Amino acid sequence: MKTLFLLTLISVAFVSCDGRKSKSVALKESIEKLKDSAGTLETIKYFPEEYAENVRDSILSNGFRVKIKTYTDLNNSYLHEFEIDSVLNKHYYRNYIAEIEVLKNHRQILKLKVDNSFIVNNDPSSDKYLEDLTMHGVWIDQSKSNDHKNVVIDFLFCKPETDVCFYFEMTIDQEGHYQLKEIKENV
Description:
Elements: H1 2-16, H2 23-38, E1 41-47, E2 53-59, E3 64-84, E4 87-104, E5 107-114, H3 116-122, H4 127-130, E6 134-140, E7 150-158, E8 165-173, E9 178-183
């Protein structure tokens, strides 16, 4: 009787050890197989998604008239790549171009396009950090443009998804000559 019981117990043990995997091991292997077969998943986003344009025409009391047209540069952008949960995210931040026309007493004294390369050409020290920045704003600094001799235009360049920004100031005299300088903020 003991022999029969022992024989039954050994038979049951051999029959139940058929090499099957546990549920958790099978699930892990299935997930790995799915990841391998799917390849790298990738999402691509553009900021802004579409062409954008803004036109401002300002007449100042000191005889200057400033036309600023900013628009999306669809050919140049800053790429920020990062991976979350095995998905490669590519965010393209499109840059902006500013077309500036300055008139003094109804006579055009300056017309130019301002973008990253313009800033680098006029301030070579900015070359090392400006390639990762996009233009975030262009405006007339009216508090510095009150005298009749010049007009001041400010530019803001920032690195996307950070708080890193750089200010530039362009002073334009009544003959159309300009001077560009970076403004260091006291923090």
